[in-house]
Specification:
The chain has about 300 residues and is α/β, with parallel strands linked by helices. About 40% of the residues lie in helices and about 15% in strands.
Length: about 300
């Protein structure tokens, strides 16, 4: 059974397969004449996805729920006050019970260890829908978006070496992308994440200089400086990230990616985000297609 706690729970070959599957589903034509894996063939008929959310979500919640419906299945939204998790029941007990009812679990939690525990104890595939450390489903959509727009691009990450960045670093290494990560001192990607990227033979360059990072880039990718749960650190982070805002000047003619939600006026300016360079809506749409590809592929692994 495959759990997607982070993007490298897939092999490099599996990642390519999931992205191909996502592209086929997006195109509405698998090309193999087999209706069972066609979107209209409802490959997830009678399958149920439990969606656990400790944090808010627009894209993840809606794309997973819609994706399950479009593939013939069903999703159950479970917010922070809907179940006993976080109110006295241990993660391992919640995991074992949910696994007896549903076919997949998707969880958005604060502590990465909790999604690891869910994956350990649930008897069904567990998908990380964002933790404080990782966001592999975002990386799937990012890689799908990049390959739709570019052949062999160079990408510059500018901003926080956070959850979204960390999964992207590993996914980019797996996909063979050229990546430079520019963060302020103290906000870099964890050494363990860099080591995992190194393990794929393709670690990113790292720098504290945004201008140097974007110099050779085709794409600039950023995310919020104040992630969910970091609100108390807001003033300190805004000061520490001075000079890392993605403006139209920094962007130049490069494409702009952002996982969203964006905090305009902080990590990105309104005019950069509203410019024709922004491919953020394609990126957001691809959450749906990428996750449909992942769910359909996971269902076939049983
Ligand atoms: N990018 C992303 O995960 O968005 P949501 O927080 O809206 O789910
Ligand atoms: N880094 C952001 C990503 C939101 C999708 C956060 O964790 O809040």
């Amino acid at each position: 059974m495959t759990d997607i706690v982070d993007i490298d729970d897939l092999t490099t070959g599996e990642l390519a397969t999931v992205l191909d599957r996502a592209a086929e589903i997006k195109a509405g034509n698998t090309g193999d004449g087999d209706a069972s894996d066609d979107p209209a063939g409802e490959p997830l008929a009678n399958r149920t996805l439990a969606m656990l959310f400790e944090k808010p979500s627009t894209r993840t919640r809606i794309s997973f729920e819609t994706g399950m419906t479009q593939l013939g299945g069903h999703a159950i939204f479970l917010g922070p006050d809907d179940i006993h998790l976080g109110h006295g029941e241990p993660v391992k007990d919640t995991a074992r019970a949910i696994g007896r009812y549903t076919d997949f679990v998707m969880a958005r939690v604060f502590d990465h260890a909790d999604v690891v525990d869910l994956a350990t104890w649930a008897d069904v595939p567990v998908i990380n829908g964002l933790t404080d450390d990782a966001h592999p489903c975002q990386t799937l959509a990012d890689l799908l978006t990049i390959r739709e727009h570019f052949e062999d691009p160079s990408v510059a990450w500018v901003g926080d070496g956070n959850n979204v960045c960390q999964s992207f670093v590993v996914g980019a290494a797996m996909a063979g992308l050229d990546l430079t990560v520019a963060t302020p001192p103290g906000y870099g990607v964890d050494d363990g994440v860099l080591a995992r990227a190194e393990g794929f033979g393709n670690p990113p360059e790292t720098t504290h200089d945004p201008a140097a990072a974007v110099a050779g880039a085709d794409v600039v990718y950023t995310d919020v400086w104040v992630s969910m749960g970091q609100e108390d650190d807001r003033a300190e982070k805004l000061a520490d990230f001075e000079g890392f805002q993605v403006t139209t000047d920094l962007l130049g003619d490069r494409a702009l990616m952002h996982c969203l939600p964006a905090h305009r006026g902080e990590e990105v300016t309104d005019d950069a985000l509203e410019s024709d360079n922004a491919i953020v809506w394609d990126q957001a749409e691809n959450r749906l297609h990428a996750q449909k590809g992942l769910l359909a592929w996971l269902a076939e692994q049983e």
